[in-house]
Amino acid sequence: MTQQGFLRARRPEHKRQRREAILDAARELAMRDGVRAVSLGGVAAAAGLAKSNVGRYFGTREEIYLELAAEAWQDWGDEVGERLRDAGDVEDIVATLTETLAARPLMCDLLGNISTSLEHNVSVESARSCKRVVLRVIADLAARVAAAPSGLTESEGFELVGMVTMTAGLLYPVSNPPPVIRELYAQDPAMAAACPPFLPTLKRMVTAVALGLPELR
Questions:
Q1: pLDDT (tens digit per residue) in 26-40
Q2: Could you give the CA distance from residue 111 to residue 66 in angstroms, rounded to a whole number?
Q3: Separation of alpha carbons 31 and 195, rounded Å
Q4: What is the pTM of this model?
Q5: Which residues bind DNA (predicted)?
Q6: Distance between CA atoms of 63 and 119, rounded to whole angstroms?
Q7: Could you tell me if 100 and 167 lie in one domain?
Q8: Are 114 and 19 part of one and the same domain?
Q9: The dihedral of CA 182, 184, 188, 191: what is its sign?
């Protein structure tokens, strides 16, 4: 949509369309280039808006990505919650938590950027909105983990779900390095061998925590 078309929009549904266009543009750019590489100006251009017009809907690029993070958390929580209904043991629970994250590279990228950058240039209300979603999803999944044959309490389920997402955020950028590091690895296979594969590493670490939590009671 052209900038002129957006400027003529006045109705509530048109404003919702603008907001969704901004989020869609930011999502597509992040999936293509990575969250860190996307600027507010880039989002505005991709959405067909002037940069100043984006500011009417989101104060900063970080607020855009916090909203996308909240959406990603809710989407992930919905799928995990549904899959946990059929979990038969700890192995099934770990597979559900980790495989669904591995299938969501944008969420993993967002997880890796939330505490390091996305929470540093936002309003309190924007931060509150995102945190509410995150805590609600973790609490819901914790209850489902405890209800499954996991041997874990609800509080331990809360720790486990929180740990898997934090670990995914830390591990994802290491397992998916930037171009310079990929070139380095191509030149030095021995060094490349130390780069941890995302899903197997995440699954192993989460399994260790899931099995270890009851031992710490």
A1: 999 999 999 999 999
A2: 10
A3: 22
A4: 0.91
A5: 39-58
A6: 8
A7: yes
A8: no
A9: negative
